Amino acid sequence: MLSALFVLASSLLARNALAASTPCTATINSLSDVSAAEKCTTVNINGFTVPAGEGFTLSLADNTVVNLNGDILFGNKSWAGPLFTVSGDNIVFNGNGHRFDGGGPFYWDGQGSNGGVTKPRPMMKIKISGTFENVNVVNSPAQTFSVSNPGPLVISNINIDNSQGDQPNSKSGGDAAGHNTDGFDCSTTDLTIQKSTVKNQDDCLAINKGSNIVFTGNSCSGGHGISIGSITSDVTVSGIVISNNVITNNDQALRIKTDSDASGSTVTNITYSGNTGSGLRQFGVLIDQSYPDTLGTPGTGVVISDVSFSGSKNTFSVNSGAQQVAVNCGKGSCTGTWNWDELTVTGGTAGKITNAQISGFSE
Ligand SMILES: *[C@@H]1O[C@H](CO)[C@@H](O)[C@H](O)[C@H]1NC(C)=O
Ligand SMILES: *[C@@H]1O[C@H](CO)[C@@H](O)[C@H](O)[C@H]1NC(C)=O
């Protein structure tokens, strides 16, 4: 009996293993094709509209190649989302320049995820290792990408365009209609995001925790710049490289913000190299331990160390009325000597550095 069960079990396992690695090709034309397609290692997706109130969720077999061959639209309905989710190990996802359209204008009311109508978010939830590239994403209802890769992932050539949300609409009371439209929210490890563009109304990149993250050769416009934080309690951020990005018409180019009441967290080994920015509305660089206040009373429960501007020159110009560099650390919570040899900021006023030892840069 036991051995019969064993034979049955192992033949089932063998069949599953076979199914998972079968080199079949599947085509998705609608959500009803998804479950069969998840068994194949080549998945071609044609353009279609996902029914309102439903998500498009792909749980791929290991080593699958996905080719997007048309645009994906999502029906409009107030619900929690996410709109698109993809998971799997060692995946090659080719967007081929096609588009995901989140229908943002239907939801936008100037309140994002802080209020107003419930908005599906994030729009794109990426849970793969491997590569994800050549995808256009427009009109995200609120946050655009959330990335939580199970292994090394390289994201390349993604164009996020929520710029339509810069304009007010009838529901936004004169404010930009798009709000909290973060480009990439990444609390993860072993991730590279490169050669991508983000036009939005919030952070271009936000890292709340994680390590070994590289953000390089991207351009950000309209939003709140490249952010580490906000940092809450008991998290670690380490080994972050932000290089060769162009940041235009954002509130600030680069920011680290930690919650004033957070404790037990560390932010360490952050390197900025070769970034440039202009049209910065409030700050060039802002490092602030008083979040949610800006330049308020800083907390001391998050230790920030080894923040460097090194490698290639980082050059920013801020608008008149903006501050070039503001550092607002709690006493003793920004440690070590920070090498800022490769930072130049012009325009506006200088700003103030409090409780941090910085070499190679002074205001
Ligand atoms: C959802 O509404 C927005 C705004 O009116 C529109 O741009 C988009 O095309 C709509 N989506 C669909 C699938 O109809
Ligand atoms: C700092 O981070 C970089 C990039 O992840 C890494 O290569 C380097 O080893 C780290 N340095 C230390 C001292 O941990």
UniProtKB/TrEMBL annotation:
A Gene Ontology molecular function term of the record: polygalacturonase activity
Catalytic residues of the enzyme: H224
InterPro entries noted in UniProt: Glyco_hydro_28 (IPR000743), Glycosyl_hydrlase_28 (IPR050434), PbH1 (IPR006626), Pectin_lyas_fold (IPR012334), Pectin_lyase_fold/virulence (IPR011050)
Keyword Hydrolase carried by entry: yes
Gene Ontology terms: cellular component: extracellular region
SMART domains hit by this protein: PbH1
Pfam families (alphabetical): Glyco_hydro_28
Highest taxon in the source lineage: Eukaryota
Reactions catalysed according to its record: (1,4-alpha-D-galacturonosyl)n+m + H2O = (1,4-alpha-D-galacturonosyl)n + (1,4-alpha-D-galacturonosyl)m
Disordered, as annotated region: 157-178
PROSITE patterns named in the record: POLYGALACTURONASE
Key words of the record: Cell wall biogenesis/degradation, Disulfide bond, Glycosidase, Hydrolase, Repeat, Signal
Record family assignment: Belongs to the glycosyl hydrolase 28 family.
Protein's UniProt name: endo-polygalacturonase
